[in-house]
Structures are given as structure tokens and as C-alpha cells.
Amino acid sequence: MAIPKRTERSRTLILDAADLAFRELGFADTSVEEIATRAGLTRKTVYNLFGSKEEIALQLIARVEAGDAIYRAHMEASEDVFALLELVFLDSARWCMANPSIARLALAPTERPSLEPPTGRPTFQRLVRDLLVLGQRQGVIRKDEDPNFMSLVLLGIYAQAMLTALSGGPFSEDDIRRLIRIVVEGIGERSLS
């Protein structure tokens, strides 16, 4: 097993320290100095590896998004798409509630999402789109609409619901299940009757 290079070890230390600091103090109240101290590094080292606190938060979000292999294994087994959608959104909702300060950044990005998921890295948008494609193959998600567009609709509604929950609004796992049911019924395969 190869030992990670110092730069990669430092990046990991910074991300782990930032993750804890954001959870404990919130994004706004966490300084780069706080992150550096928790990582056991200098502030200069943090800035050498990351351009800003926002970039650190975005890397944390990307790290979570890269963990979609478990869902992809379920997709490869062609499991029920509705059960998979529920699993993915419930796991995401739990993460958002445990990480409210960086969840807000993920749920309300500064750039408007494009129809196509970003290339070159795993994203939540791509995972949801691929789930909808699986549902189209299973014959339970309508085929007359673009899965990229449908994923943006589903993610937009989900993001607003989670932002409301993060602002102290109502939230329960049943609320997420209900949201998925309502949206999916709107995008479900049309009956011919």
C-alpha cells in the first residue's frame, strides 16, 4: 500500500478538520485559521492547497458525491427504481440535516445548474438522472421526457424542501417519502387507459 504524498495527506487533514468545524460552528463562523489549527497545519498551507473556505466546502460536497458507488451497485442489479430514489433522497436528507451549513451551499449553488450534469466527476444530479434512466428502462418513469430535465425538476423541488427544513421548517423521513411520491407520480409512466 502506497503512502499518500504529503500534499494529499494535508488536503485530507484540512477537509476532515473543516468538516468537523462546519458541523460544530457552522460555515459562516468557521475561519480558515480555525480549520488550519484543527488540521495541525499553518494557515499558509491551507491557502496553498485551497483558494478559499468556499473551495474547501465545495470539495467536501464533491467528496460526498463521490460516494455513490453503493447506489450504483443497486442500479446494476436493476433494483426497484422507486426504492432506490427513496434511499438516495433519504440518505441525502440525513446528510443535509447533519451538515446544515455546507448543505445550504450544495442546495443553493451560486451557478445555475445546466441540463447536463457536470462532466469529469460524480454528482448528485448525475446519480438522480441515471436513476430516472433506469426507471425508463424498467417502464415506470415516462419515456417522453428527457431524464436530464426531469432530474432538474426533482432536484429543484427537493432542494427547496430541504432548505425549508434547514430553516426550521417541518422535516421527517415521511416528508421526503411523500415528496418523492408526489413528484414521481407526476413523472410516472402514463397508462394507456
For the structure shown, list the relevant keywords.
single chain; 193 residues; mainly alpha; Arc Repressor Mutant, subunit A
What features would you describe in this structure?
The protein has 193 residues and is mainly alpha-helical. It has 2 domains: 6-61, Homeodomain-like (Arc Repressor Mutant, subunit A, Orthogonal Bundle); 66-187, Tetracycline Repressor, domain 2, CATH 1.10.357. 68% of the residues lie in helices and 0% in strands. The protein has helices at 6-25, 32-39, 43-49, 53-65, 69-76, 81-98, 100-107, 124-138, 147-166, 173-187. Helix 1 (6-25) packs across helix 2 and helix 1 (6-25) packs across helix 4. It is elongated. The N and C termini lie far apart (60 Å).
CATH topology label of the largest domain: Tetracycline Repressor, domain 2
| Low-confidence segments | none
Overall pLDDT score: 87
Oligomer: single chain
Percent helix, as a range, is 55-70%
Look at the helices and sheets and give the structural class: mainly alpha
Q: How far apart lie the N and C ends? A: 60 Å
- Given the structure, what is the number of helices? 10
CATH architecture verdict of the largest domain: Orthogonal Bundle
List SSEs in N-to-C order: HHHHHHHHHH
CATH class bucket of the largest domain: Mainly Alpha
Our count of domains comes out at 2
